[in-house]
User: Fold this.
Amino acid sequence: MTIQPLVDPRFFLGNNPLFSNLAHADLENLLAITHKKHHRAHSIVVRQGDTDDDMYIIESGSANVRLHLTDDEEITLGKLTTGDAFGEIALFDQKPRTASIVTCEPCEFLILSRKAFETFLLSNPHVALQLLTTMSKRTRATSDFLKEMMYLEITTRLGETLTNIAHAYGKNTPNGLKIDMKFADQELGKLAGIPSDIVTAQLRHLEKTGIIHKHFGYLTLLKPEELTRRL
Assistant:
């Protein structure tokens, strides 16, 4: 028995970040080249390693994202529900699927094939330009996120290194916890596993924000509790 979705398929297509900025007429034309497919519960929709090139939007039901690790080991990465999409990248390349999608219950899918999508873009070059803009924004956002995560990792490692050194060589003073031993930026970098120029920049930032004080090579942790919390 096929489950009919309760929401207009235009909502699912237009709500997808890739197509959310398209004009109503373009969205209608794009919807016209999609097709629907029903999958029973516990069936494989796409298999990791396959090279099929369709994009799927779940109109009803739910599915698990499964990652195959070894011959006898598989893990669930997450769950997709009504309105979620997968396979967008397949519209632009022909690389193997990076994970499998397995239905948890009967599902109805709205499907856009790569071949139909390419034909649509050739007939609607303005849409191609819009999609390039959307994808560039997503790429930039991803890049900014990765840079932020890298920054947090680096600063956290430096904060933990300074804290550990202070516990080993620190002594309490009226101003804070003074590390009673000189450590060059290169030495701190080796201990923390980060480049010395980044150590120099981070120490300058920490001093500017009043968390540490550096005097003739000696470091005093003015607010040691802030080292790992603020970084």
Notes: The first strand starts at residue 35 and ends at 39. The two ends are 55 Å apart (CA to CA).
